[in-house]
Amino acid sequence: KTTPVFSLVGVSHIFSPFVDEDASPINFILEMSCTLDILKQHTLVVADTGDFANIRKYCPVDATTNPSLILAASKMPQYSSILDEAVKRAKSTSSDLREQIKLAADHTFVMFGKEILQIIPGRVSTEVDARQLLVQYKHY
After folding, report:
1. 46-59 in b/e burial notation, b at 16+ Cβ within 10 A?
2. 97-119 helix and 67-74 helix, angle to the nearest 10 degrees
3. Residue 39 to residues 9, 52, 87, 117, 120: CA-CA distances in angstroms?
4. Is 64 helix (H, G, I), strand (E, B) or coil?
5. Which of 7, 35, 58, 98 is most exposed, with minimal Cβ within 10 Å?
């Protein structure tokens, strides 16, 4: 038996069919919580985000992310320290600017993944540019 997976992408849009348009924000949150609880009884809830606050808030069983979600999260002020650390590590590894940019991106993905693992233990996967694999294995 397979268990359906429900992803928390654009949560307010997903739950809008279940909530009265004239409902107050408090009623919306209560309705959303009840709907989410119902969904959790019948499916696995997966967070599709790089925003740790939302992962903590909705308590999904798994999380997935990709470069565009990490980019969106990395623009949030609360995650600036992750970017700062990624840039610092990249600069300490290479003096070539292009290499530093690639390394900073890789470090950012890894550091976001590590943070997600602190919230949801287990495994984390990070989407990478497939072209990197082609370049790497081209020489074999």
Report:
1. bbbbbbbebbeebe
2. 90
3. 14, 21, 40, 23, 19
4. strand
5. 98
Partners of 48 in beta bridges: 64
Q: What is the pTM of this model?
A: 0.66
Q: pLDDT tens, 57-88?
A: 888 888 888 888 999 999 999 999 999 999 99
Pick the CATH number of 5-137 from 3.20.20.70, 3.60.10.10, 2.40.160.20, 3.40.1440.60: 3.20.20.70
Bridge pairing between strands 62-64 and 5-7:
unpaired
Between CA 55 and CA 138 the distance in angstroms is 38
| DSSP 8-state class, residue 48 | E
